[in-house]
């Protein structure tokens, strides 16, 4: 086992140990970052696409500086940060909720200089880390993704994936990805279990295996399976589904009877970065009305956390405001994190395609 693989495994195991809107920011802070380039992470797939098209240009406009963007799953990002604490490879990172909490517990993040992030004032208090170690910059809604040419009647339940007509056409995503993990929790809750009692979900997957055609490593790869016609139905995020639709892929998202699922994402300043102020400006840009409004639109449909940004387009068909998101199926990461490594190992042992 390589050092990188060993460090990554330790990170997974460690999960169980647990300018202001409307102001011309470029004129205010741009001169402070001369000749610097920020190292930031995003997630693969539609996230990377949207950040390159929307966030990076807005950041350059606000600061006059550039950022180097790396697509990385949150667990992989934590592995790299843990292995290079004194000289981290990134200045600001994007995290899912579970990995974000372990990063906080391991002291990997720097408190945000709040004076440099004025858009925090437009976030609900619960969307800001109590110690100022990060902020929730977005939410992802997931449901049942399906090929509209092959499946004429929209599915209404996760149980529909068990139907015999979907033999070999169901896609799964591995539990190393947050999507795979939260979907398993959603299954468990639908069947009477929870984060600490996942046997119902694993039994469901065992019964589902004759229908499984492929297992993707991450949501981006899952989207590729739809695009290449290798699968017809799966769990997926609305932003990935809408991105595929914009590319001409016949896919739509349906609400399960157990309700939509929700995953929130954070941005955090990395401890020991030499660009804390620039990293703060990056987070401030991500929280701005300008950026979040564009992120809610086609083809990304990311749920905003800035209270000044209305829900529109496809998101308006799911919720009208952030308050409605609270009723969606969510995960208690404090309960799940201690068991995460075991669930990943079990999934990898039992799911063979």
Describe the structure in your own words.
The strands form three sheets. Strands 3, 4, 5, 8, 9 and 10 form a six-stranded antiparallel β-sheet that branches. A two-stranded parallel ribbon has the order 1-2. The chain has a two-stranded parallel sheet with strand order 6-7. The protein is α+β, with helices and mostly antiparallel strands. It has two domains: 3-139 and 263-316, Periplasmic binding protein-like II (D-Maltodextrin-Binding Protein, domain 2), CATH 3.40.190.10; 140-261 and 334-350, Periplasmic binding protein-like II (D-Maltodextrin-Binding Protein, domain 2, 3-Layer(aba) Sandwich), CATH 3.40.190. It has 15 helices and ten strands. α1 (3-14) packs across α4 (74-83), α3 crosses α10 and α3 (46-63) packs antiparallel against α11. One of its GO terms (cellular component) is outer membrane-bounded periplasmic space. GO terms for molecular function: thiamine binding; thiamine pyrophosphate binding. InterPro entries: TAT_signal (IPR006311). Keywords: Signal.
Helix content: 25-40%
Class by helix and strand content? alpha+beta
Q: What characteristic shape results from the CA principal axes?
A: globular
The span between the termini is 24 Å
The largest β sheet comes out as: 6 strands, antiparallel
Q: What's the number of helices?
A: 15
CATH architecture of the largest domain: 3-Layer(aba) Sandwich
Poorly predicted sequence stretches spanning 5 or more consecutive residues? 1-12, 17-34
CATH fold-level name of the largest domain: D-Maltodextrin-Binding Protein, domain 2
N-to-C SSE string, H for helix and E for strand: HHEHEHEHEEEHHEHEHEEHHHHHH
From the alpha carbons, calculate the radius of gyration and give it in angstroms. 20 Å
Overall tally of domains: 2
> What's the count of strands?
10
Oligomer: single chain
Instruction: Estimate the mean pLDDT confidence.
Output: 89
Indicate the proportion of strand residues.
15-25%
Considering the protein shown, what is the CATH homologous superfamily of the largest domain? Periplasmic binding protein-like II
